[in-house]
TrEMBL record:
One of its GO terms (cellular component) is plasma membrane. Keywords: Cell membrane, Membrane, Transmembrane, Transmembrane helix, Transport. This is NCS2 family permease. InterPro entries: Azg-like, Azg-like_bact_archaea, NCS2. It comes from Ructibacterium gallinarum.
């Protein structure tokens, strides 16, 4: 342990690292309940997604430990899973495309391979440094709002309306009421700094749902998509389900190159900034940055993220990325990769508890989605709305277009295009880095393809 993780050099012990790993796991294990719920909207079986989510998280955590020796855990990313399901798969399904998740998984695979190449040549750091801060922050905040509206819709709190576009759902429904109670529970637990507040909020809401079902308030109607909140241990349900192994569709790529390129780029762009921002934030809290504020062994950490994404795609889940919840483990004393290894092992253990996680209803995960959305929205505090107009409107456009067009890709596309056009019009064309020109050109082509469809 000492030779592999350099525990003494980092001022920690095996016990501290393992407790830190447990803390991180409790803080992020909600993804095992949330991810199957979200990806089921893409036409995927929840049980298979659960297996893929747990296994890919375990492998990615191990890679982080071996490649970078950092106490950072990884799993299928929030926001990226929503983009996978609602911005890629749902529109394709509505257009009549069969099994659109296969196309989305192919895009995730390509994204991961590109990330590996970029990591090998240290291009990822360059890309991150050349995109304006306001755009990065606006994208993060916009994803937070997008996740929030997905959560609210899942519990029937927000519903569609022909007259006002959106409206308030039925306030007396158990899903509506219990989701709000769950959010309050998470808020209280977070206030008192209870470890795993999001997980406990999900579990508390779930228990209240079982009570509601037992007394007849919450009524099961499988035909309407309302399922029992009680887990079933009948038969071999405790055995992990088979994942969507290598379930790719490359035929779509040959006939829809531009559309596929935009999907890949959107995955790439969001994951790029989410990962780097998370790594820097967690490292800063753990005192892992050097005297110049840089992250040593950043290449290894980014490679772990890239490998995790490729593995996740091969198993059948959305993009794997670093989790900001790793900061809870760092605050508990985690300083090395042993923390990440511990978290990864716990994800494997959770594989055999799938009946429990898969029985958690959508309204019980709504509080988690809304609260994570809140945490991501806090990035707006760092945005500068008083200086360069391109930075201001570009970042704001990215922020608002995501929830109001129900698409993360739209937010990124219009945010970047707005920024480039304003830079040109204000005589600051020299501020536009080649990577932004390439991004803008790609999105212009995307708009052209949308216009002629």
């Amino acid at each position: 342990m000492e030779k592999l993780f350099k525990l003494k050099q980092n001022g920690t012990t095996v016990k501290t690292e393992m407790l830190a790993g447990l803390t991180t796991f409790l803080s992020m294990v909600y993804i095992l309940a949330v991810n199957p719920n979200i990806l089921s909207a893409a036409g995927m079986e929840a049980a298979g997604v659960f297996t893929a989510t747990a296994v890919s998280a375990a492998i990615a955590c191990l890679c982080m430990a071996l490649f970078a020796n950092y106490p950072v855990a990884l799993a299928s990313g929030m926001g990226l899973n929503a983009y996978f399901a609602y911005s890629v798969c749902v529109p394709m399904a509505e257009a009549g495309i069969q099994n659109p998740y296969q196309i989305a998984l192919t895009a995730v695979l390509v994204e991961g391979i590109i990330f590996i190449i970029l990591s090998l040549f240290k291009f990822r750091e360059t890309l991150v440094n050349k995109v304006p801060a306001n755009l990065k922050l606006g994208i993060t905040a916009g994803i937070g709002l997008f996740i929030t509206i997905v959560g609210l819709k899942g519990a029937g709190i927000v519903i569609s309306s022909e007259s006002t576009l959106v409206d308030l759902g039925k306030v007396v429904s158990p899903q509506f009421a219990l989701a709000f109670i769950g959010l309050i529970i998470i808020g209280i637990l977070h206030h008192y700094k209870i470890t795993g507040s999001i997980l406990w909020g999900i579990l508390a809401t779930w228990v209240l749902g079982m009570i509601a079902e037992a007394i007849g308030w919450y009524q099961v109607d499988a035909a309407a998509g309302v399922y029992s909140t009680f887990p079933s241990f009948a038969g071999n349900n405790w055995i992990p389900a088979g994942p969507y192994l290598f379930d790719f569709d490359f035929s779509y790529v040959t006939n829809h190159i531009m559309e596929f390129a935009v999907i890949v780029f959107s995955f790439l762009f969001v994951d790029l900034f989410d990962t780097v921002g998370t790594l820097i934030g967690v490292a800063d809290k753990g005192g892992l940055l050097d005297k110049d504020g840089n992250l040593p062994r950043a290449g290894g950490a980014l490679m772990a993220d890239a490998v995790g994404t490729v593995v996740g795609a091969c198993l059948g889940t959305s993009t794997v990325t670093s989790y900001v919840e790793s900061s809870t483990g760092v605050m508990a004393g985690g300083r090395t990769g042993l923390t990440a290894v511990t978290t990864g092992v716990l994800f494997i253990v959770a594989l055999f508890l799938s009946p429990i996680f898969l029985a958690i209803p959508g309204f019980a995960t709504t509080p988690a989605l809304v609260f994570v959305g809140l945490l991501m929205l806090t990035s707006v505090q760092k945005m500068d709305f008083t200086s360069d107009i391109a930075d201001t409107i570009g970042g704001f456009t990215a922020l608002v277009m995501m929830p109001f067009t129900y698409s993360i890709a739209n937010g990124i596309m219009f945010g970047i295009l707005t920024w480039i056009i304003l830079k040109i019009c204000t005589g600051k064309i020299k501020d536009i880095h080649p990577v932004m020109w390439v991004s803008g050109a790609l999105f212009v082509l995307r708009i052209i393809t949308m216009a002629i469809q």
